[in-house]
Design goal:
The complex is a heterodimer of chains A (495) and B (98). Chain A has 16 helices and eleven strands. Chain A has 495 residues and is α/β, with parallel strands linked by helices. Classes of the chains: A alpha/beta (495), B mainly alpha (98).
């Protein structure tokens, strides 16, 4: 077996049994990155020397009997997490040279538990996008391709496109990602892997470059549901440095994977059956229902009546918060500075931000600035916050009738790199099934469940109650077992 | 409701993003496309609904106040390490006061 083909759980077992060392495992991944990253562009920065040093230290700890829960496991870190001493770009020119002097809490938790960092994964600029096409460091290619059209290069989804492509192509055993409107789940679905956005507050946001603070959550992507559970346990936990971090116990998520679904009530929201939804998405959803029923779950029809307002709500709330968060990029304290010969301070700000931000980021800052401006705040921002409360209320009522909710993860399979790039609203519709969980603050898991007619991966999504990721993992594992998703992307390390 | 070009220039100015005259029309079209789509929210009945301002409904879990105490500091070189320009232990900017 090629070392890059281990699951994360399998690699931990192999390390424990002495079948492989972390140095060997890490070197195999670095070799794979050397071979495939020039084409996939999944990593912005590869930290090979540091990774091998970490792996060596990890092997020593293991030999000394001090192995942590992730001891020696090579991971990719989305380039939105600050890593001390390693450039952190957020996929933006404006942070192109930024080297943080501190570590994000989530990446620090992974290091504490023994993980090895291979490098920083590509992403849409400031995590704003659904195709990884807005990165200032170039697009990421999906390692999958269409059966009858293998030359058309496909997007990996976004914003965590580099994380998902790296894991799918066997360039990492798992990766950190973040999700503001679907940025973990949509790329996971497009790349045929699993990914969970946990409950708001589960993972600390400290040291994660902020996009929309009331929606942003960190989470893992990996090739199995259990691997996600293992990573999430390490990433989670109360952090006094984030005032919205939840001071609640972190359960053993991996143990919950094996609970099964017998007796669970699974909600099927009628509003997620969209007009014009491709037949194969509807068929996959039905298949997921049949799988869960066959394993002893009860299906319940539910209604989430404000679903159709979720995306427009998101596109008020997220840009508003982004316009505020991104005000800090001013060319003074860090990052790019752009001036003309006679620039005053205001001109410095304006030239720096014009040169440093890409088009999508500028659009969202402009929308956010407008909806927060005097005279429009109530009509847009306050209104959106009220609709957001109604979306959350829909879920609160649904939980009276069900324990988890099953939906498709995305309205289509991965699309071509040249498609959907001209119409911002068409791009936004990618998140139609995922964005509600961010607005309501709930956990959502994407699981690979089947292939499209074109041979591309399709995912199902499981939503759960706040801080009940355990049920979500149990349902996700049941789907994973039934789906038995063994298809592999054409571009991968051991191919 | 549709934004005119003067409003586009004003928003860019508020956002401190230099907008070239040649780009005003394109930005105007894109923002009007997005705002036209957002407009549908006005049709939702939100009478008596308390706005949800954070990532969780109020008090779930409760936000905390931390002690107002110094927890870090005394490292000007780290703070200034990424500055595009510095003078002594300060961030440097073009002259603001004549």
């Amino acid at each position: 077996m090629h070392p890059t083909d281990f699951t994360l759980r399998g690699a931990l077992d192999a390390l424990n049994e002495g079948i492989i060392s972390s140095v060997e495992l890490t070197q195999a991944h670095l070799d794979a990155i050397g071979k495939l990253n020039p084409r996939l562009n999944a990593y912005i920065t590869v930290t090979g020397e540091q990774a091998l040093a970490q792996a060596k230290a990890s092997d020593n700890r293991r030999a000394d009997g001090g192995a942590g829960p992730l001891e020696g496991v090579p991971l990719a870190i989305k380039d939105l997490f600050c890593t001390a001493g390693t450039r952190t770009t957020a996929g933006s020119k404006i942070l192109g040279n930024f080297v943080p002097p501190y570590e994000s809490t989530v990446s620090g938790n992974l290091l504490r538990d023994g993980a090895v960092f291979l490098g920083k994964a590509n992403l849409d600029e400031f995590a704003m996008g659904s195709s990884n096409g807005t990165s200032a460091f170039g697009p990421v290619e999906n390692p999958w391709s269409r059966r009858n059209d293998p030359d058309t290069r496909l997007v990996p989804g976004g914003s965590s496109g580099g994380s998902a492509a790296a894991v799918a192509a066997r360039l990492a055993l798992g990766a950190t990602a973040t999700d503001t409107g679907g940025s973990i789940r949509q790329p996971a679905a497009f790349c045929g892997i699993a990914g969970i956005k946990p409950t708001y507050g589960r993972c600390s946001r400290f040291g994660v470059v902020a996009f929309a603070s009331s929606l942003d959550q960190a989470g893992p992507v990996a090739r199995t549901v259990e691997d996600c559970a293992i990573l999430l346990k390490s990433m989670s936990g109360f952090d006094p440095k984030d005032s919205t971090s939840a001071d609640v116990p972190v359960p053993d998520f991996a143990a919950a994977c094996a609970r099964g679904v017998k007796g669970l009530r699974i909600g099927i929201p009628k509003e997620y059956r969209l007009d014009g939804m491709p037949a194969e998405i509807g068929a996959l959803w039905q298949q997921g229902m049949d799988w869960l029923r066959a394993q002893g779950a009860e299906l319940v029809d539910i209604s989430l009546p404000h679903t159709k307002h979720a995306l427009p709500t998101y596109y008020v709330v997220a840009p508003a918060e982004a316009s505020s968060n991104l005000a800090r990029y001013d060319g003074v304290r860090y990052g790019l500075r752009q001036t003309a010969a006679d620039s005053d301070l205001r001109d410095l700000y304006e030239r720096t931000r014009a040169a440093g931000f890409g088009d999508e980021v500028k659009r969202r800052i402009m929308i956010g600035t407008y909806v927060l401006s005097a005279g429009y705040y109530d009509a847009y921002y306050l209104k959106a916050q009220k609709v957001r409360a109604l979306i959350r209320r829909d879920f609160d009522e649904a939980w009276q009738k069900c324990d988890a909710i099953l939906t498709p993860a995305t309205p289509s399979a991965a699309f071509g790199m040249d498609e959907k790039q001209d119409d911002p609203v068409a791009m936004y519709l990618n998140d139609v099934f995922t964005v509600t969980a961010n607005l309501a603050g709930l956990p959502g898991l994407a699981v690979p469940a089947g292939l499209s007619a074109e041979g591309l991966p399709l995912g199902l999504q499981v939503l759960g109650r706040a801080f009940d990721e355990e049920t979500v993992f149990a349902v996700g594992t049941a789907l994973e077992h039934a789906a038995n998703f063994t298809a592999l992307p054409g571009l991968r390390a051991s191919a | 409701m549709s934004l005119d070009s003067a409003t586009i220039r004003r928003i860019a100015s508020l956002a401190r993003i230099r907008l070239e005259e040649a780009d005003v029309g394109r930005m105007q079209n894109e923002l009007n496309g997005i705002l036209g789509w957002i407009e549908q929210l006005q049709a939702v009945n939100t009478d008596g609904v308390e706005p949800m301002a954070g990532g969780a409904p109020r008090g779930e879990p409760a936000m905390r106040q931390r002690p107002d105490a110094v927890t870090d500091g005394g490292q000007p070189d780290q703070v200034l390490a990424n500055a595009p320009d510095r003078a002594h232990d300060y961030f440097a900017v073009p002259k603001v006061v004549e």
